[in-house]
Every structure is written in structure tokens, then in C-alpha cells.
Amino acid sequence: MSNLSINETQPPTLIITAGSTGSGKSLLIDQTKIYIDKGGVEFKKILIDDIIENNAYYKEEVLNIINDVCPPALEDERMKCLEQKFKNPTPELFKKFSDAYFNTRREKKCENPDKPSESDEQDENNTMICDQLNDIILRESFKKKENIVLETTGQYIPSWVLNKTDEWVPRDYEVIFSYSLVNVDNLIERNKSRALKSVLEFLHDNTKPAPRLPDVSKEAIEKNVVKMIDNLITLYKVCINNIDTNTITDTNTITDTCGKKQINRLLIFDNNGKMKLIFDSKNTKLGSDEFKLLIDSVFNLTTANVASSVGGYESHIYSDIFRYRVDKRKKTVKKRKKTVKKRKKTVKKRKATVKKRKATVKKEKQQ
Which residues have a Cβ under 8 Å from the Cβ of 43 and sit 6 or more positions away? Predict the structure, then answer.
């Protein structure tokens, strides 16, 4: 899909979206484009999942997993089996899908119909590693000066894209990070029927993308959201709020986190109800502590609202996500204390050894 309507008076734009599974990243793309006055401009979406989910090998693997879990021979009972297995997937089922996904992604399972010059990793059957194919598509899009959306989960800051400005993002690109924040309770609700729906759609029509089935258990969602929030705070504190592109060098630690390409803008949307913008770094400047309070307040306040509207949840101010974060920090502190205690024992042991050696030397001298 090529860009058909680039405004030549404006630089091309790279939008890097971030959000958890079920956070509404498709809507996030539309809302971001409208907000930056590029609603009518075509963007090329780059997402490795799109390549994998439409891959013939992955589709075959997924079909085998589904048929193994709920064989077609069950006939009328098969729907009940599918509902039972995919409404509440087990860790074992998550692992089967994960293995199929990463085996496809990291091995030479992808075809490259365009055969670009970079495809030195192709074999004689014109197949290549899917990650490399995704990289080639991205680089080709940069060369064509296309407007691009790079979709991520927010589990990391993609500094690899921003680090090699000659190979990846050209200097004339505007780079915008756009986040969709949704609290844990809402993510759990939205993901409950997601797996079953995608499985049924695929079984009905195998030409559609095969389901991915990422781990959407409460524990996994909490862990992923904590990591996303921590990365978001780092992105603002290190890459947006303090960065000075004139001082960036190869040895600068900022480049390890942010890359060398300037990040022009950070947008944050709250998508717990109707999606709304809550932060634009171009118009609002916050200190690091103020920014953290803004992010925390989204989860704290919205979780309390969900408690009263959804039902079945204990009304509280602090969400599960932050209790998880506190627990995580307690474990870290406990681990550090154990390390300090261990080091003290080591020091004490070394002192005793030194003392013993001195006594031995003294005794030898006396003899």
C-alpha cells in the first residue's frame, strides 16, 4: 500500500503507536492522524504481526493447534469445545500459539515477492526470515518518503529505528509517539471474547488472518502494562523533556535509550471510555514528577469509575496495576537486601582470612 496523497509542503511523518492488546490501536491511528491534521493523508502501516498472521506456514500451524484442541470429529460438540478452550485459554494453549508465532517469525518462513536488493538472507526458494522482511519493507518505505505508522506494544522504546538515521529514519522525517492508555480492568473485559471471536472467524474463512492469541491473563496484562508505563515515563523524561539534539553523540547514553533521531512529539490518549487526548508534548511542558502523576491518575481514577459501572469489582482508588508495581518494588528491595547481606558476609569472611594470614606470618617470624 503506497502513499497516494503526501502534502509536498510538509515533511513525511513516522507515527510510532504504543498500547496493550485490546487498547484500541487501530482507533489510535485514526485519532492521531486527525489530531495532527493528516486525517486525509494515507499512511503505510508497518506491523510484523500482519506479516505473520497472513503467512501460510503460520496459518497451517494455527489450524493444527485448533484441530488438536477441538477436533472436527466432535461435530455438534465442537462449538462447545471451542468456547470452553478459547474463552479461558490455559497457559499451555498460550504457549502453543506463542511457539507457532515465533517459529514463523524467526525462521525462513516468509516469501518476498518484490525480491529487493537487500534480500541477501533469502534462500533459493525465495523465502526469508520474517523479521528481516519487515525491516526491508520499512526501509523501502523510508526511501519512498512515505508517511508511516509503526505499531508497537510499548514494551520497549524502538531506538533501533531512530539510531541509524542514514539507514532507517531520514533526517527530514517528523517522528511522533502516540500512546493509548487503558486500565487493567478494562483490558481484561475487552480481551475476554477476543480469542474465541478470532478463532471462529479464521475457521469460517481461512483466507482471513490467523489468530495470534497472546497471553491476556490478568497477571500478564498487569506485567505488560507496568512495563509500558515505565517505558513511557522514561521516553518523556529522557527522550522528550531533556533531550538536546545538538549534544547527541555516539558515546552519549541518551542514544542508547532514544536513538539519534529527534522525537518531535509525544501524544497520549485515554481510551477507557471514549478515546480522548490527555497530553501533547508540543503544547504542554511538565516536570518528570508531574508527568508521572498524570499517567498514574489515568489508571487510578478510571479504575474507580469502572468499579462502579461494571460491577463485581471492589471500589478502590489504587488499581491492581499499581499494587503490582508496589509488590514488584518490594521484591526488588528484598533482593537487594539479600545481596547486601551476602556481600557483608563475603567481606567478613575476607577479613577473617586476612587476620588468619597475619597471624600465620607473625607466628612464622617468631619461629
Answer: 3, 13, 15, 29, 33, 146, 147, 148, 149
Element (H, E) at 267: strand 265-270
The contacts of residue 158 (CB under 8 Å, 6+ apart) are 16, 150, 152, 259
Look at the block and give the residue holding cell 588468619.
Answer: 356
161 residue type, one letter: V
pLDDT the model gives residue 362: 82
Q: Grid coordinates representing 240?
A: 522528550
Residue 342 CA to its chain's centroid (Å): 36
Distance CA 252, CA 144 (A): 30
- Rounded distance between C-alpha atoms, residue 367 and residue 360, angstroms: 11
Question: 360 to each of 97, 101, 347, 351, 363, how far by Cα in Å?
Answer: 64, 64, 20, 14, 5
3.40.50, 2.40.160, 3.30.70, 2.60.40: CATH of 13-316: 3.40.50
What is the Cα–Cα distance from 23 to 180, expressed in whole angstroms? 6
What are the pLDDT digits (tens) for 183-219? Answer: 888 888 888 888 899 999 999 999 999 999 888 888 8
